[in-house]
Design a protein that fits this description.
CATH class of the largest domain: Alpha Beta
Order of helices and strands: EHEHEHEHEHEHEHEHHEHH
Oligomer: single chain
Strand order of the largest sheet: 2-1-3-4-5-6
Shape: globular
CATH topology of the largest domain: Rossmann fold
CATH superfamily of the largest domain: Response regulator
Helix content: 25-40%
Number of domains: 2
Length: about 250
């Protein structure tokens, strides 16, 4: 009997590369994986019934809202949910947009065959995951063969992809002095992100790259790729920054 899964991707190109790692691992084990966004419970039900889906990989917030739970239970479909922080003190690492919805544990509890997992290190769960039960630690995954660009020949000294509209203090105090120093010393660089780069009078290559292969090329062809962690991530040794995982995966 064929093993058939559905991956409902979490928005964001960095998340996409991590999810590709999980998908490729399943395919290596003999699974056929459909990769798509049903958008509605009705469409998700149609895919389950038409393709004989046995496993669904999804995520907090938008991903859980698409699940037709009765159909999933009636057909004994297993579900793996990549969950976000949820706790009584509203503590988070990456900002308020990185919270799970309050009713998610109840929704997940209605699914018969389900695993809630997180790449947050277990030592953080007491603060960030107190409302989740039976949580599984699943580290980030990546396919080195797929992630590496066709060439990793160096074309620039430094490359950075980041938005700073929501953290302009970091730009003024850390990033702007760093890149102006690079200019002064004659090093080359490429930067992509929001207009804050222009306001800092830095050479700017445009908005965030919206394609995984292009982003991999940027990282794989630079000698150094800075990435800014939140102070909490550094202080707690959280190791949860997906971008820092992606950079070396792409050869950066």
């Amino acid at each position: 009997m064929d093993k058939i899964a559905l991956c409902i991707p979490r928005p964001g190109i960095t998340s996409e590369m991590v999810q590709n790692g999980y998908v490729d691992a399943l395919e290596h084990l003999g699974w056929k994986v459909y990769h798509g966004d049903p958008k509605t419970k009705l469409c998700c039900r149609k895919w389950i019934e038409e393709h004989g889906i046995q496993l669904i990989m999804t995520h907090s917030r938008y991903g859980i809202r698409q699940l037709p739970i009765k159909v999933i239970n009636d057909r004994n479909v297993a579900v793996a949910v990549d969950v976000l922080p949820l706790n009584s003190t509203d503590s988070t690492i990456n900002g308020p947009y990185e919270f799970a919805h309050d009713d998610e544990p109840t929704l997940i509890g209605k699914i018969h065959e389900v695993v809630a997992h997180s790449h947050f290190e277990p030592h953080l769960w007491a603060e960030y995951m107190t409302k989740w039960k039976d949580l599984l630690h699943l580290p980030l995954a990546g396919n080195l063969v797929r992630a590496l660009p066709p060439t990793c020949s160096t074309i620039t000294d430094v490359a950075m992809v980041a938005n700073f509209g929501h953290r302009q203090g970091v730009m003024r105090q850390l990033i702007e002095p760093l890149f102006k120093r690079l200019d002064l010393l004659g090093y080359s660089y490429q930067v992509f992100g929001d207009h804050i780069w222009q306001l800092a009078s830095l050479s700017y290559n445009g908005p965030l790259v919206g394609d995984v292969s292009k982003l991999a090329h940027i990282y794989g062809t630079a000698k150094v790729c800075p990435n800014v962690h939140a102070e909490k991530q550094v202080g707690q040794q959280a190791f949860i920054n997906e971008r820092s995982f992606m950079i070396p995966l792409c050869g950066g």
